[in-house]
Amino acid sequence: MIENILPSAVASAELLAYPEDLRAHPAEEALIAKSVEKRRRDFIGARHCARLALEQLGEKPVAIGKGERGAPVWPRGIVGSLTHCDGYRAAALGHKMQYRSVGIDAEPHEALPEGVLDSVSLPKEREWLRTTDSDLYLDRLLFCAKEATYKAWFPLTSRWLGFEDAHITFEIEHRGGGCGAGTFRSHLLVPGNTDDGNIPLTSFDGRWQVSDGFILTAIAHT
């Protein structure tokens, strides 16, 4: 599913059914030695997907460490993102010479828990939700897009990005029967100076899809 909303040059892999014989890479085991079983499966599954994507890019399927704020540490010349939720794990990777960053997120296609929306959204976003008629759980889609935005932002800036620091707008290309797809733009509301000194970030453009009970969002920033 995730490949549908990513450019063809971005390698991706996803895992819905979890193989019972799947094990952590030996060099990653120490990172999850004290984790509960669900956390272990999410970690192992997402990194398994990342190694499949690395092979698609012609790279060695190496161990993937954890950096600042738990961000994955990619091999030199690679950018990417991991995601997982109940029943789904995925990775998307690209070559740095083609993409500055990649951010993906997956969420179950269901409403946000009560009381969460106000803490993860801006007044303009809530107004859009109130005035848009849809059979999709657009509140969860908004949250999913915010998560993908942060994952695209952090590798470039090494700074936190709060939910209130980006205004997300959406285009809906088609919908019906609990499915849908379209685009979104993340308008950054804070200075976007980057670690590499390139042109400051002002926005990210992404794509989204709802199908098979999951919401997926993806940004491949050039």
From TrEMBL:
It comes from the Bacteria. GO terms for molecular function: transferase activity. Residues 27-93 form the 4'-phosphopantetheinyl transferase N-terminal domain. Coiled coil: none annotated. Keywords: Transferase. Pfam families: 4PPT_N, ACPS. Residues 101-171 form the 4'-phosphopantetheinyl transferase domain. This is 4'-phosphopantetheinyl transferase.
